[in-house]
Design goal:
- The protein is of the alpha/beta class and about 675 residues long.
- The protein has 19 helices and 28 strands.
- The strands form six sheets. A seven-stranded parallel β-sheet has the order 8-9-7-10-11-6-12, sandwiched between helices. A six-stranded parallel β-sheet has the order 13-23-22-14-21-20, with helices on both faces.
- The radius of gyration is 27 Å and the shape is globular.
- Bound molecules: adenosine-5'-triphosphate and zinc ion (ZN).
- Adenosine-5'-triphosphate binds next to helix 5.
- Zinc ion (ZN) binds next to loops.
- One of its GO terms (molecular function) is ATP hydrolysis activity.
């Protein structure tokens, strides 16, 4: 489709929605430019990147004098119609500017290149020799009955007409199902897109795909690539050269002209939700994209999100169960340690004596133990016994964490870091002490308790350097570690073969969180963590998952003991339905950031007053501060909108948000506002 009169093109430019300039702008171009062409256009005094788009309805109006397109990057094949549809949907649904979103999801390097440079890159890529099929394809493992059954369903058009939830317990071999489904897509001459939650899981999966598909082009897309790598991989996907694209959430926007399959591994994982800018859910967009493109989508998890689970109950998704571990191994036995029963004076100990003993036995047997503690650093706060000073962050409503190794106090929210003071900064008392425990301290204590053991730690602090995570994981896989301490980074996806004991040291925090999703997340985390133990069928029978808790009678633990996801999900869904919460209601969160809490609140109040909630069919809750109210000297408030109808909520937002910038003038100190559709945490 071309513009409605010759020489005119509609261009999506990078301006946020709800500013005075929004949507598409018209420019003049002598050469006809197909929708999806990357261009640079003048905007005010600047020259900005843009994408040619189908003209909007208003393009029929009489032509004004238009400024010309500065350059058109015609060396790059235009972005396809499916890609544009995805971007247009995402922009509308998440209430962002079309051009803003479209350009944000392209590799940043792309906008730095001129047409000649681009042409050169493309030529180089075209000339690159195809990956040599050096290694012969490996012998395929014989499928388990459940894998075969799942694939048989996926093999029929009816079987994949709906989104498929591959509900496979930990160690049931979901990856093999992805590999076979991808092989089918490749055999049909199509591309497969595989999304994983964490960068740290991509290399392991990448290796398995690379081994399975020698001679095929496999590229990854995630934020840890260099800009040049990311551009190259993106171009390979866009040109249709890459057969397999493996990536984190941003890869859902990869341009894939031959797309034939989307896999979302660990679909329940919160990291599929982008937490800034356009706060999109890559999982939800994957489902939309697959439906729009008419290709199968496979959502895999041992602990599906309650959203996906509910869609199975409603018959909108098809569930394919895999309830046995490969090799028929048992699930680890769950052992709860009631911390209330520990003898007085020993409760401050890091590990209950029976757990310590169990770990010692594993060490003696040459098996590995994995200890989870969801807090990095040495201690969450430093405290002065004389004046009650605590190591607060001067810029945030949060404590600064004591890191012993580099002797710093660090704010995990804004990054503010200082050397640990020798004495209390308030009263000069020399006796300031850490309270509580982080992974650093746990490692130190374990090293003291288990002098014979090789104790390692894996968290965001130990894996900062490039390649360090892979190296540490390799050491674990090679059996060079006896006890591994770490954050939830450890609980996900890893196929550890020597681990027979997993312990959650302090899981209780989440039980009392005010966030309605906290139980769901904790349950998933513990199930996933348990799933790291006994993955070798030989050892499965004696594998154990320990949980230290002060609330052993909590119903969540009863379900965990039986590895009973279904009954946990049913109970949670019943509560959610009674409370009118997702997946039975739809939420949007309006966030305001300001110099003062009053300005943020005032803005939200005025915003709320613009909606006639009863007519709109939405409920508006009063503004409340988020968990960390002040962050980097900015005060934050948020206001929840809820509706049983997604359409009603979308309609309300679309009519309402454009009015909000008009309120800014009345609230001195308001810095910015933003909306989060389907927020994960409230
Ligand atoms: N059909 C098979 N025959 C033999 N081994 C298999 C088969 N399918 C999978 N495996 C092996 O079983 C192990 C577990 O598989 P995989 O890692 O895919 O589990 P998973 O379902 O993804 O578990 P998790 O949810 O914990 O990540 C892997 O080592 C894999 O190589
Ligand atoms: Zn801070």
């Amino acid at each position: 489709m071309t513009a409605s009169w010759p020489g005119r093109v509609a261009v999506a430019v990078e301006t946020p929605r709800h500013t005075s300039v929004s949507g598409l702008l018209d420019y003049a171009s002598e050469q006809p430019l197909a929708p999806g062409t990357l261009v640079r256009v003048p905007l005010g005094k600047r020259d900005v990147p843009g994408l040619v788009w189908e003209p909007g309805p208003e393009a029929e109006a009489a032509p004004p004098v238009l400024r010309p397109v500065t350059v058109a990057l015609t060396a790059l094949p235009p972005m396809g119609a499916d890609w544009r549809a995805l971007v247009a949907f995402a922009a509308a649904y998440y209430q962002r500017g079309l051009g803003e979103l479209a350009l944000a999801v392209l590799p940043p390097e792309l906008r730095k290149l001129d047409d000649t440079q681009l042409a050169r890159r493309l030529k180089k890529l075209a000339g690159a020799p195809p990956a040599a099929a050096a290694a012969p394809p490996p012998a395929l493992p014989e499928l388990s009955e459940e894998q075969a059954a799942a694939l048989a369903v996926l093999g029929t058009p009816e079987g994949r007409a709906k989104p498929v939830l591959l509900h496979g317990v930990t160690g049931s071999g979901k990856t093999e199902v992805y590999l076979r489904a991808a092989a089918d897509a490749l055999a049909r001459g199509e591309q497969a897109l595989v999304l994983v939650p964490e960068i740290n899981l991509t290399p392991q999966l990448e290796a398995r795909f690379a081994e399975r598909f020698p001679g095929r082009v496999l590229v990854s897309l995630h934020s840890a690539l260099t800009p040049a790598q990311r551009l190259r991989h993106w171009l390979q996907a866009h040109l249709g050269q890459a057969d397999l694209v493996l990536g984190t959430r941003l890869a859902v926007f990869a341009s894939l002209p031959r797309l034939g399959l989307i896999v979302v591994d660990e679909e329940h994982d919160p990291s599929f939700k982008q937490q800034e800018g356009a706060r999109y859910s890559a999982r939800d967009l994957a489902v939309w994209r697959a439906h729009h493109a008419g290709v199968p989508v496979l959502l895999g998890s041992a602990t599906p999100s309650l959203e996906s689970w509910q869609r199975v109950q409603e018959g909108r998704y098809r569930r394919l169960p895999m309830l046995q571990r490969i090799g028929g191994g048992a699930m680890p036995r769950v052992r709860l340690v009631d911390m209330n029963l520990l003898p007085r004076g020993t409760q401050e100990r890091v590990l209950a004596p029976q757990l310590l003993e169990a770990i010692e036995k594993r060490i003696a047997a040459g098996e590995q133990s994995l200890l989870l503690l969801n807090r990095r650093g040495y201690a969450p706060v430093l405290h002065c016994g004389a004046c009650a000073w605590k190591s607060g962050c001067p810029h945030c409503s949060a404590w600064r964490v004591f890191h012993k190794l580099d002797r710093t106090l660090k704010c995990h929210h804004c990054g503010y870091s200082e050397r640990v003071p020798r004495a209390c900064p308030e009263c000069g008392n020399l006796d300031i002490a850490p309270i509580g425990r982080g992974t650093e301290k746990l490692q130190e204590q374990l090293a003291a308790l288990l002098p014979q053991a090789r104790v390692a730690r894996l968290d965001a602090d130990t894996t900062r350097a490039a390649g360090s995570l892979q190296q540490q994981l390799a050491e674990v896989h090679a059996g060079e570690v006896d006890v591994l301490v770490g954050t939830q980074m450890l609980a996900k996806g890893h196929d550890f073969r020597r681990v027979t004991l997993v312990a959650a040291i302090n899981a209780d925090g989440a039980l009392f969180s005010s966030d309605f999703r906290a139980p769901e997340r904790l349950f998933a985390l513990l199930m996933q963590a348990a799933g790291r133990a006994g993955r070798d069928a030989e050892q499965a029978a004696r594998s154990e998952m320990w949980v230290q808790t002060w609330s052993p009678t909590h119903p969540l633990f009863a379900a965990l003991r039986k590895h009973d996801y279904d009954s946990f999900a049913a109970a949670q869904l019943e509560e959610r339905q009674a409370a009118g919460l997702p997946p039975f209601a739809h939420l949007a969160l309006l966030r305001a950031e300001a110099r003062t809490a009053e300005a943020a609140t005032g803005f939200l109040h005025d915003a709320a007053a613009l909606i006639d909630a009863a007519t709109a069919g939405v409920t508006i809750y009063p503004p409340v501060p988020p968990f960390v109210a002040k962050l980097a000297d900015v005060e934050r408030m948020q206001m929840l909108l809820e509706s049983p109808s997604r359409a009603a909520l979308q309609r309300t937002l679309a009519g309402w948000l454009p009015q909000l910038n008009g309120l800014r003038g009345a609230h001195k100190g308001l810095l910015r506002w933003a909306v989060d559709i389907d927020p994960l945490a409230i």
